[in-house]
Amino acid sequence: MVTVRDVPESEIDQVIDLTGIAFHERVDDGDDRERHRWLLRGARRLGAYEDGRLVGFVGGLPMRMSVPGGSLACVGVTDVVVLPTHRRRGVLSAMIGRLYEDLDAPLAALYASEGAIYGRYGFGHADHAAQIEIDTVRPWTTRIEPAPRPLRMVSLEEAPKVLAPLYERAAARRPGQFLRDEEWWRRWVLTSKESGDDALTEPRVVVMDDAGYVIYRTKLDEESDDLGRVRLMELEGDDARVEAALWRYLASIDLTGRIRGARPVDDLVPLLAADPDTVRITRTWQALWVRLADVGSALQGRGWAEPVDTVLRIVDTRIPANDGHWRLRVTGDDATCERTDAAPDLTLDVRELGTVYLGDTALATLVRAGLVTEHAPGAASRLDRALSVPRAPFTSDDF
Predict the structure, then answer these.
(1) Within-domain flag for 212
(2) Is there a domain that residue 398 lies in?
(3) Would the annotation count 350 as a binding residue?
(4) What SS3 state is found at 156?
């Protein structure tokens, strides 16, 4: 019989070994294992045990995520694993159910290794990412004049304090970012090694005054004996001219011929490049998945682009407190979301609510797909206008 209980800190290494089996990874003693230990020490740890042996695990990290108009507490769900010998026995459902019983935040979020799994637990894919490649073999220029302010390289020791205010401003502009403390910067962002690629250098950090920054790594290109590759980790600028200056810097790094990195789907660099053929979006993917754990608090806690008054029939089979009719009223800066007996304008599963929550996907598109039912004509379009955001959501951190 499988039982679910808290995992003590003394068993964290068992969790790491379990994730290695599930995700086909080898985690030897060293930086990667210690980094993983640190992450799990700060998490709510739930394990599935059979005869005293750990056969499944779910972790919940206390985090805070930027949402339109502000930020909200969020549980970052991590290391969701079940031994292959114990699949299809209800182990995952038992662990997720226990996690939901104790959630103390209006939102939960995760990265899905298999997208088909998490929709049935109420998670919706809430933002997308784009893989961008830039050919910099030839001189790379921009269509606008880059900001003329000087750049400086910052040591990894001083980087967290220098970058924190710049990142916080960027997170306020774009939903889906996780707020960071100094320890997260040092242990998770600015680590000496990139997990899965030992050939990459330690991070390089370049700052433009108090207006923007870039974090990157470099390595020799396995496809060429002459030119290396820039692995872009983060690039944030207060305006397009600052971003242009940072992209131009990356493109000018000696002995490199390509930049590659994950970026928001509305990134400016394809528009900024003087030669658009040098920039390619090689793929896009569903990145962060979001679950509304407390519908009322989550809808009241985000900002809205315009007033709206609508009734939603939310279907939630996993968290009964969310299931039912909710009236959302937004007037100016005030928003309320309360239970009601009124007839619904829209009926949707909590999964679809997670999909539209950060502004990534239009509700009207989900109506067209048959995933949301519109009872009042135009209700989806009206709510879409209220949900709209000036920048596409994007998440820099994985966990």
Answers:
(1) yes
(2) no
(3) no
(4) coil
